[in-house]
Structure formats: C-alpha cells, structure tokens
Amino acid sequence: MHRRVYSLIVASTLGCGAAGLGTAPVFAADGGPTGLTTANQACATSSPGPYLSPDRLNDARAVLLRGTYDTSVWGANPTADFQVWDTAHPDQPQDWSDRAGASDGKVLVQLEDPARQLDGVTYAWKVRVANASGTSPWSDTCYYTIDRSGGTEPAVSSDDYPSGDKPNGEIGVAGSFTFISASDDTVSYQYSFWDNAGSGSSTGNQTVPASRLGGPATITWKPRTAGDTSLTVYAIDRAGNYSERQYYTFSVRETRPSVFSAAYQNSAGFGDLKYNVGVPGQFDFSSTVADTSSFAWHIDQDGPSGSADADADGKASVMIAPTKAGHQTLYVRAITRDGAQHPEQDYPFYVDNGPLVTGDVYQSVVRGSSLRFHLAPRTSDVTSYIYWNVAGDSSESAKTTIPAGADGTADLTWTADNTNERTIGVQVQARSAEGTLSEPRWLTMNLSGASPLVTRTGGDVAGTTATIKARTLLVNPTEYEAVLNNDATTKQVVPAAADGTATFQFTMTKAQYTSVTVIARNAAGVHTDQGSTSWSVTDGPAITSTDFPTRGSGHIKPGTFTLKSQQTGATKFIYSIDGTDRYNVEAPIASDGTATVTWTPTTSGYFNLHATSKTASGVRSSETYYSFYIEADPVTVTSVSPSTVQTGGVRTITITGSGFNTGNYVYVYPSDGSYANGTITGVSADRLTLTATVDLTGAAAGPASVAVQPDGYHSAVRLDNAFTIVTQPTLNVVTKPAITGVAAVGSQLKASTGTWNPTGTTFTYQWAAGSTPIRGATGATYRVQAADLGKKLSVSVTATEPGYPAATAKSTATSPVAKGAAPKATVLPKITGKAKAGKTVKATTGTWNPSASSYRYEWRANGKLLSTTSASLKLTTAMAGKKITVTVTSAKPGYNSGRATSKPVTVQK
C-alpha cells in the first residue's frame, strides 16, 4: 500500500514541475541520498558530466545510477524515486519508478531504454527515498551525456609510405603515419599492420593517444616484408566508442635479390642426388635495385660466406659447396655502388646425403609379402644402416640396425605382417664408424591388408543354408576363419583349397540383418584384414502376382496376389496395400502354406503391398514389401454438367465419359486462356462419371473447356466448350451504415446495418479508430475507450446473402473522440487525524464514479493554497485557529479531471 501512495506523490510532483530541474546543480538537504555514482563514476555536479556509451558499459547496455541512504532513518526497504531529465527540457522528467529499487541502504536504477537515453543528449538526475512516514529531501543533481556512436573513420596519411600500388621505402626502413580524426572528441587511436611476414599481423592491436581531444596522432613503423601491406585504424572517443574502420593500403619496395639454385632446392628426400656435402652447386642472384655492384652471402651464421660481383644487369652466379647436410638457409644482400647495403633475402635449401636406395622402390606390397631394397652410401666410412617404420598417425617403430658390407652397401628385406600393418613409409639412415648419421631416406609403403573377397549364395530365408566363398591376395594362405554375426561361438576354421579359396556353410536360424566376416592366414601366422558380406534374412511371406507384376504394370480391374508362408507354424497372413482401404487385413493360411488375396484397384499409380505372417501364439514374421504399378485406362470425355456455372467461388461440375479413376487430373480452361486445377470428389462405380470441384473466383465469363489427364505419364483428353461460365450477381449497398451516439470516452455508440439490394440476410461488424481496426470490436455497439481519444471512429458492415459474394460498406467517421465527463465524487474527501498543531493529518480520496486511476491533493489554510501536495499535512503552530481543507483532483485516462473539497477542520493549538 505504501508503494502505491508514494507513486501518487511522485505523479503529483512531476505534474507540477518540481523545483531543481534546471541545469544548475542542486545540493541535497540533510537526510537525502548520498554516495551518488553514474555508471560507477562519481557524481558530476555540473554539465555535461562524463560521456557514456551504454553499449560499452555492461551486458544490459544500460546506464546504472546508484546512491546510498541512512537505514536508521528510512529503514531497510523504503521506496526510491529517481528523476531523470534532458537538461534542454527540465520540465519533462522521465519516470523510472518501475525499475528503481531501494534496499539495505542502497538505491539504484538501470536505464535500459534507448528511446529515453538518446544519443548526444545531456541528462541530469537526482534521487530521494520514501517510507510510510514521508519522503527524504532530494539528493544532489548529477550530470552525464549519452554518446552511442564513434563516428566516421579517421584519415591516414604518410609521406614515407603513401597509399597506392607504387612501392616506396624498403624492409627495415621506418616510416611515419599520421591519423586524423573526423570527430572532435577522439582521445586515442587503435591500429594494426598486416603484411606477409609470419602469421600476418605484425603488430597486433596497438593504441596511441591523440595529441589533444579530437587531435591527430603520429606513429612510426618498420616494414618486415616487401609488397602489399595494410594498416587498419579506428578512432576511439571519450565514451569508448570505436569509429568506422579506416583501411589504408600501401606497397613496400622490394630491394632483396632473388635467389635460385637448380642444384640445391628445398625438397627433403627428393633432391638431385648428384649434389652432396662438399659438392659445389650453382646459386643465381638477381638484384631488384639499380646500380648493384656486388652481392654478399653467407649460409646460416656459422657456414661458408663470400661475395660476388654483379654484372651490368645486376646478376651473379656463385658456386657454393655446402659444408653440412640437412636443411639450412643461404642469406644474400645486394650492395650498390654507393656502398648502401640492402636487406637480406633468405633462401632455404636442403642438402641430401642420405643413402641411395634401389630395388622395389614405389611398389605396393600385400601383407605376407616382402620388398627388397639395395642400400648404397652417399657419405664416407659407412659401417651400418638404421631403419624404422612410420605409421599413419606419425608414430614410429623401434629402430633396426643392419651391417654394411666392405663396400658400404647393404640389402634390406622388408616384410609386411601384422606388426607393421599401419605403416605408410620407412626411414633409412646410413651410419659411419664414428656414429655420424646421414639424412634419412623416405621409402613410401603402399600396403594391402589382403582382405578376402567374400561372396554368398542362398540363406535369404530363415531355416535355409548360406554358402560362403572367400578368396584372398595373401600369398600361400593355409586356412580361413569365418564368423557369423560377430558371434565367436559360430567360428569355423577351414583349410585353404588348392586354388587358395575356402568355402563355409551357415544355417540361418532366424530373420535378421546378417553378416559373415572372414580372415585368412599363412603358415607364418600372418593374417589378413577382415573381409565380409552382409544381407537380410527374412521369414516374411513370399509374394507373387501375374495380375499385378513387379515388372510391367497391372490394370484397373480385379486381380490376385499369392502369399506363401516362410515362417514355421504360421497360421495367417496380415497385409496392407498403401493408399487404399486395405489395412491390416487378415487371411488364413491354407494347408499348402499359401493364401490368395483378391483386389480391385480404384486408381492408377505406384503401390506397395506389405505383409507378415503370424503363428497361433501371436509371433509375427518379418515384413515383406511388394511394389507394383497400376496403369491408367484410356480416358474419354463426352459432356459436362451443369451447362452454366457462376464465377465467384468453388463450384462443382460432373464430367461424363469413360475410364475415370480417382488418380486422374482435372483442368478447367476459361475463355481468357488461363486454367484452374480441379479436385476430384468422386468417381462412379462404372467409372463413366467423375465429380470435381473447381475454384472459379475471378474466372473470365464465356465458354470453358475441360480436360482430364489419366495420370502423370499420359496426355490429357480435352473437351472444348464443355460449359459456360457466367458472372455471379453482386450485393449492392443502398444506404451506408450509420453511427449514433456521442463520440466521447465511456459513451456507447451503435451502428445501423444500412440498406442493401437484395436484402442481406446476415451482417457482421468491425469498428475502427482512424484506419486501424479495433481488436474485438465486432458487435453492433461499441463502448468508446480511452485509447480512442482524439481519433475518428468508423464501422464497416459486411453483408452476406446465399448465392452472392459478401460485400462490405463503411460508415462515415465520427468527429474526433472527446474526453469523457469528469468523475464525480459520490463521497467527499475527508481529513482524518487530530487537527492540532504539531500533528499530521491525512486526506482520504473520497469515492468517485467512474473510479479514478490517480489523485492530486491541494491543501488550503483559510482558503490560502499551501505548498504541500502529498496526501498528508503536518500542522504547524502558525496554522492554529485556521480552517484546513483539502481538494482532491481525480484523474482517469480519457476523462476530464474531477475536483471535490472536504469539509473544513479547525486547527487547535
């Protein structure tokens, strides 16, 4: 109850324009809330306050206003009243009372509505608390400004690296870039460079402050690579908003030479084996800068180095003998005649001193078979070789060592077996007497698991036997092992026949999805990967039919299906034919295990017969599906009735001819060349007549043709001038509907139907405010609502008459809806409490008809208006002897305000 009374106090205060809503700061009296913060920033008591971007403040995208109050005075849970206003409109404060809260000495409100927190507007706010005893003074006034937009992108300029495709500068040469904001409130800039070095972004996001508020900023940066480079820049304002993105592109001049060597390339394991450690190879240098006099080069930091003079074209060729094996990098820079040294170009290359491998290289191998390789050294003093397997997941096997002969060569035999079945390659290294290892040589392995090829005959029906035959590429298999349905108890092991194959037999004990897996082994115990075959075993009925074959087509006439049981102990069949009235039909099984089913199709198309059998104990077999096609009979069309049909809706026509069925298609062609699809509603038993409905709304008047298509695969048969389409008569309004009654809130209006030709038998209504229909206002009368205030009301009446399309007429609109009569006090307000100086009296609202939604209070002493506007008044000694009255103004949306004054009371000393 306290909350509702306080809301009325707030409404009264806001309505009268409380003091302190201007732009000058207002300081809180003793007892008002303190500790004020705006979006967690201390209260700014002068305009414009902090600049805030709600989208960047929190997940709620809201400005949070907070304060504290004295719980010893106001209790733990008073109510809070926040006033927030646009400083340009101090007389229009916002009401946030529904979102405000006060508890345990803290007040807060979250301003979440963007429509009431507008971009670019400076707002002021203050807060007070209230309980049953009264209200506190207002707090200080705090200010803040909403800034939701970062603005347009900043400009970027650079004399060192201007925008465009023309290259400038070079790698390592610093350049300056200046950022210029398009906004006057920029405080910093965020930027990042993107080039082709490393993973791309060379700087990540960097921030530089503006030289002043809204001012520029200048940064320096050294390119790491040549070619196209981009710079992304955002301006950041004082509210933390980011501007639109500036995307600045420029090009860095390439001054590194190009380097190439056909002898030493960056291809591990695939290099030219003529080249090795200590073998000179040619490296070609080509300068990208004019007036190049020489090149300086070195391999890594500890390798050979040197220089070479450039020819007139800025090129040079150098013979370099690497001093070590493996991956390494040659660095080359161009030096011009003025002595300038330009950035280095790096050229990674590979020196391959791995062994030479010949023999079964690049050949596939079947499990159980071997590959033979001859290993020859490409390093000195080789005494052995080391090899190991590498699997598809990059895991490696243990390393194996084989000795080399006196000439440093060795032969390696590699056998595919079950220990290395995941191998994709073999690495081989040569080792010297001192233990020095060469680079590895990669030998690709293409392994076949020799999975047996498995075929099957028979075993499709439960109780029958499946014969399984297996064949493998495994050399000299000695035996095969087969398992049915992964059940180890069914395992059979048979020796391989002379031709390397094996044959198994399994009896199918039940209907289910079935599989047989097979592996083969040789005398060494090497086994193949698993081969398999799978199929469905059924005990469902076998279905045959000469009238409705699965190949070819049946016709729309009686025919039969023969069902034969394949389930032990079956006593009946249960079958259904999709799309027909045959559903779960039961048929007894004769002594020969069969049943004959008779059926007459009613339409053409594709059908499925699915059937099961069932034992006396209720056990059902698996289901058999039998698919077949019914061919449509030839169609003739001789006449259509009725001979004339009206437009304006769905009409029924009857077509006479022959060969009709419910799977036909019907089309109607009006005289304007359009067409409409018909819907078949019935076909006679002799198939000589067909009834269909067709929507002729908007159809052209005149002669119409009808076509019937047997099905989707045959051409339609057409009858021209089959019937005539005539225009449907219309309902016409003679006198428009009219509205009677006073267009004021709370009054009742009544609509007449108007007059019609011919007379409409039924009417419906729809009231509207302006051009908007009023929801639920569909009766002949309407009670005017507060939401209609100022709007013109009208009513639309829709008449219906059998044989005619519905018609609607709209009344003339009323004058704008006026306010309703002011509520009247049926019981006057009354002053309660002891009327004595120092005491507090209260006012009742009185009783009003109609009831009001809010009230305002005016207290007078001897007729003079007092400043208090609350429902209570504290009597002072100055009021002693005076007559006190209270006038209550009642307010109700859409109605004029009502006023009533209490009887006076005299204040005692």
Automatic annotation (TrEMBL):
Location of the region described as Disordered in the Swiss-Prot/TrEMBL record: 529-551
Leader sequence segment: 1-28
Keyword vocabulary terms for this entry: Signal
BP terms from Gene Ontology: carbohydrate metabolic process
Polar residues: compositionally biased ranges: 529-548
InterPro entries: Ig-like_fold
PROSITE patterns in the record: PROKAR_LIPOPROTEIN
Domain of life: Bacteria
Protein name per the record: IPT/TIG domain-containing protein
Organism: Actinoplanes regularis
